[in-house]
Structures are given as structure tokens and as C-alpha cells.
Amino acid sequence: MQAGIVSYGAYVPRYRITPAEIGRVWGSDGEAMGHNLNVVRKSVPSPDEDTITISTEALRTALLRGAIDPQEIGAIYVGSESHPYAVKPTATVVAQAVGATPNLTAADFEFACKAGTAAIQTCLGLVGSEMIRYGVAIGTDTSQGAPGDALEYSASAGGAAFVIGRDRVICRVHRTLSYTTDTPDFWRREGQKYPSHSGRFTGEPAYFRHESECARRIMEAGGTGPKDYRHVVFHQPNGKFPQRVGKQLGFTDAQMRYGLVTPYIGNTYSGAALIGLANVLDHAGPGERILVVGYGSGAGSDAFDLETTDEIARFDRHHGRPVQWYLDQGVELSYAVYAKFRGKIHMGGE
Amino acid sequence: MSIARFWRETPRRYNLGGSKCSTCSTVYFPPRSVCPHCTSHRQSIEKMMPFQLSGEGEVFSYSVVHEAAEGFEMQVPYVVALVKTVEGPMLTGQVVDVAPEEVRIGLRVHATFRKLREEGKAGVIHYGYKFAPVEEPGEAPAARGPSVPVPKAEAAAKDRATA
Q1: Element containing residue A36 per DSSP (H, E)
Q2: What is this model's ipTM?
Q3: How many CB atoms lie within 10 A of CB B34?
Q4: CB atoms < 10 A from the CB of B39, how many?
Q5: Helices (DSSP H) in B103-149: which residue ranges?
Q6: DSSP letters of A198-253?
């Protein structure tokens, strides 16, 4: 049987901050910035949360929902650009914390915001070739923008975990296709705390070119068009870019409705498209076709042509929280508490 | 705490791994190799089975900490509670994702996976369980299952221990 999504779970930390509050500190019109970016607020992790804890929470939810024995997981790949260690895998801690050790392979992926979708493709290969029964792909980040930088208005925290398998598939994968080039739109050098970006260059030659080319090519390969999809999910560095690329490709707001989550939780980087997909699956019934196009700076896009199966009607969403809960809930912080939580205050002796 | 000492605690701190007496069904956390409840302790030797707690429980009592322990300065004020788990053992742990004034005795909590402490900026990071409220204040009570997945081999051991 073909490999597909067997289960999934998402997790977003509890705290939020608004663009208006960030702008207040830096003397800019944060409200206008939020309006331009289509970001109402962004999530903020607690001081005791990081990519490892968020990934674990998302995967625990996925395993409980799918009633999957963790000992049957053959691979765990965690995609992130904010792994807590430069050397020591995130994936080993997550594997141990869900009870999947020791008979599995594990590794960390990094490709800016699309490391999670790259992990899904790897799992599809391993599961499809019957090397393993279940593969786990996680996309999580706790990203930071430099204080006062435009990125600070959107960079947030959250993640989603997808279990790939061959039996009890709730969402089959018709096709996956990638579009990759060397495009230096966004980067972080070794040892640097905050990323750098090339301003407007992150738009047309980077995000828009890769997203639209990848989407067009996967539809061309499958002989489909925008009208064939009930839902579409794009990478969402802000709330504006995915809306614009969707319109350019001929998708409607209704098709983007569930897949666009950044306006309410910010840009969760490696988690962004995956949390959007999790929200779509939270609302989907059987036989709904979904197009997902992730994007990672540097640069590349991974596209997936998906369709939910009859199995999704029997899927137990009882465990964990639905994505909508994370979009609605949250406790707003002042910039001062946000700065403390994110380690932006120099405490002395460091 | 040394790395080796913390590492030995991993099954408990990550997965709430305890033990259960297959004679009298008492659950222990941390795990015990003999059951002090059985009239003859010898009865329980080699009958203590691995048992993973579900992570569900309620606040038995708690304290709001204003003078932080080293490494917890960023979280002041924070809540440390005795949590009575549904399986019986009482666990001590931090309660997160809640304002201290919203914590009360009887508050339903479940285990969550968090950073416990860091050995400085360059050292190892320790992870383990903390607790978080099952429902947000004002939210309708949620019917939830366990919050920590159990490998089938251990679930089978649980069944054997219960039988």
C-alpha cells in the first residue's frame, strides 16, 4: 500500500505578543506593521520551552491520536533552524521522550523554513520502500528576529508532527515535487544569535518564484489545476505573502481559509506550513484534495498533492488540542516580559 | 547534578516510568524493586512490573515560589505542587502555563515535557516532566486520555501486572 499520513499533532506555546506592543518599544507604528504583514499576534515560548519540548508535545499528541506503538517507529527526523544544540541531535531526545528508542534511526534536518517538509519526503521514501513501518517528520521552530528588525514582528514558535505509514492512512500522497536553487535571501552564520536577510530580495526572486514554480510544476505533473483542490497551504512567513501567491496562482480565499494560520500565531518557520496542514486536516472529511507548498530560504520549495481518505472519518482527534484552539487562545505579554522570556536581557556574568 | 546522575533518571523524568506490584497492584514512582505494602516483602520479589504513569492527576497541595532556585529566575513567581496521579503515586513538579493565582487544590493537571535546567550557556540541557492545567480557566471540562504514549510491550506488562 502507498505511504501516506497516518496521524498528526500540533503544538503552539501559550504566550502571545502583538505587533503594536513591539512597535511601541521601537518607536514604530506596530499596528500598521501588523496590518501590512497581516499578523495580529505571534506566539512566544515560555523560558522552559524549545524546539525539543514543542516537538515532543506535538509527537505525543500524534501517537495518542493514531494509537501508534512508539516502538514501531523506524525513523524520527526533526526539521528546525532553532535546534537547542549545535551538536547533539534534537531527534534523540524526542525519540526517548516518546518511548521510541532504541531501534530507530534519527536525525535533525535544517533547511530554513522547509526542513519539516523535507523530513516528510524522507519518511515517504523509507516507508514506501518498506524499510520501516512508521516514519516521523516534525517541523518546529522557536525563531527570533533581531530586536527592532522587521522579522521580530512575525518570528514565533510552534511545531507539528506527522506520522507516515502504509496502513490506516488518513491522507494519501498522490505526488511530491521540489524546486531548489541557490538563492541567498535569508541566512544565519554559525555562532550568530539572529538571522540576516536581504530585505525585499526575500520576496520576488525567493519566496514568490519558488512557491509559484513549485506549485505550477506539481499541478502540471499531476494534470490538475487550482479548481481540483479543496484546500491549499503555502509557507507563510507573514499573512500577506501566501495570500498574494495564492491569488497569483488562481486559488480563492475559501481554499486558503484553514491553511493560513500565521495571522494568529506568527511565523513558526519549519512549523508554519505543517501547522497549516494540521489545521486543514482538523477540519477535513474524506475525499478532500489538498495542495501544500512549503518554502525554505536559501532556497527551495517542497510541494505535496494530498487527498484525505475514508479513514479520516474514524480518526480520533480526542487527544491534544486542535489547531483552532491555539489560534483562539493565548496570554498576551508586554515587550518587557517577552524580552525576558526570549533571553534578550543581559543578566550579567554571561 | 552530574550528567551521569541525571541521565540515569531519564526513564522517570521523560516517560514517568514507575513500577507496579503484580501481587497487590500498588503503583510506585519512582519504581521500587520490592513492594513494602505486601505483608511479606519476599512475595513481591521479581513480581514488580514496569509501569508507566499516564501523566494525569490533580493538585494535592502547592506553593508559590518567589525566591527562585538557581536556574529558575526567569520564571518567578512559579508554582511547585504535589500532584496526586490517577494511578496513586504523589509526584512533585512545577505547574506551568497557569498564573499562580489560578492554581487551586484539586486543579486537574497533566504531564507536559519541558526544560528543567541548563548547565550554563555551554552545558547540557536537562529535560523532564512538569504539569500543566488540563483546561484553561473558564473552559469546559475536557475528557482526555493519557498524555504520555505507552509502548505496547509496557502496556502488556501493565495488563499482566493488573491481572
Answers
A1: helix A30-37
A2: 0.95
A3: 17
A4: 9
A5: none
A6: -GGGGIIIIIIHHHHHHHHHHHHHHT--GGG-SEEEE--SSSSHHHHHHHHHT--H
Flag if B74 and A60 touch (Cβ within 8 Å). no
Q: By CA distance, what is A12's nearest residue in B?
A: B97
Reported CATH class of domain A4-170+320-341: alpha beta
Decide the pairing of beta strands B56-65 and B78-85.
Answer: antiparallel
Cα separations in angstroms, A331 against A32, A41, A316, A326: 22, 11, 28, 11
A283 Rama sector, left if φ>0, alpha if ψ -120 to 50, beta otherwise: alpha
Out of A68, A93, A99, the one facing B127 most closely (by C-beta) is A93
Closest residue in chain A to residue B153, using alpha carbons only: A71
- Best probe of the A interface among B3, B96, B113, by most A CBs < 10 A, is B113
Sketch the domain layout of chain A as residue ranges. 4-170+320-341, 171-312
Picking from A271, A153, A290, the residue whose alpha carbon sits closest to that of residue A224 is A290
DSSP state of A328: H
Domain boundaries A171-312, corresponding CATH code? 3.40.47.10
> Are the beta carbons of B146 and A64 separated by less than 8 Å?
yes
Asked if A79 and A273 touch (Cβ cutoff 8 Å), the reply is no
**Domain boundaries in chain B?**
3-135+152-162
Interatomic CA distance for residues A51 and A152, integer angstroms: 18
C-alpha cell of B145?
Answer: 486520555
At B18, list the grid cell: 514507575
Which residues in chain B have Cβ-Cβ distances shorter than 8 Å to A350?
121
pLDDT of chain A, 350 residues: tens digit per residue: 589 999 999 999 999 999 999 999 999 999 999 999 999 999 999 999 999 999 999 999 999 999 999 999 999 999 999 999 999 999 999 999 999 999 999 999 999 999 999 999 999 999 999 999 999 999 999 998 889 899 999 999 999 999 999 999 999 999 999 999 999 999 999 989 899 888 888 888 999 999 999 999 999 999 999 999 999 999 999 999 999 999 999 999 999 999 999 999 999 999 999 999 999 999 999 999 999 999 999 999 999 999 999 999 999 998 999 999 999 999 999 999 999 999 898 887 66
Q: Do domains A4-170+320-341 and A171-312 have the same CATH topology?
A: yes
This prediction's pTM: 0.96
Q: B125 in contact with A at a CB cutoff of 8 Å?
A: yes
User: Which position among A113, A123, A171, A214 bears the catalytic label?
Assistant: A113
A47 close to A341: Cβ distance less than 8 angstroms: yes
The span from the CA of A18 to the CA of B15, in Å, is 36
